[in-house]
Amino acid sequence: MTKVSELIFQGLPYAYNALEPHIDAMTMEIHHSRHHKAYFDNLQAAVKDTDMAGMEFTELLRNISKFPVAVRNNGGGHYNHELFWNIMSAQGGGEPQGELASAIARDFGSFADFREKFSNAAKTRFGSGWTWLCVLPGDKLEVCSTPNQDNPLMDVSECKGQPILGLDVWEHAYYLKYQNKRPDYVSAFWNLVDWNRVGSNFKQAI
Ligand code: MN3
Prior knowledge:
Layout: H1 25-47, H2 57-62, H3 69-86, H4 98-108, H5 111-124, E1 129-135, E2 141-147, E3 162-168, H6 175-178, H7 182-189, H8 195-205
Antiparallel strand pairs: 1-2, 1-3
The structure holds manganese (III) ion.
Manganese (III) ion binds near residues 31 and 168.
């Protein structure tokens, strides 16, 4: 429960080169210290001296259709990147365990089926956007994709739920290393997913 004006631009939970070779250090540094920082700064500038500054951040996102497009783009930009940094780890990869593993098997058939569905959504998102694993009302898991910096918390999103895993498929997330080969970046991402973290996001969401 954090007010928009009290949000903090945090450092990454690992070094910029920690995710190599899957995501290179220069991409991580530019992505975090310039792209994400710009979303954060622009969000704060957009809410300054308005009632939005005192709103709880996720409440603002849930009602985003009522607010200016700069808040939608930059508020989404901040929320999405903070989630993204925290669901990756140099020790990531493998498969989820416990409750999350059971829920994935229940809702997708198997982990492999889930991974294929998520990867296809990431590869086929036209232009810039994100792919998500979300918890829908009723605690059902679903894969979905949103354009630009939208996310499934937003009332403008076609799919609405609590995102617990997200993948940034903007070119700025992969172009230096992968150029036009987004599918190779999507494949590499699976080596980085911190399933312990995604599992705890799942427990918080249900
Ligand atoms: Mn990005």
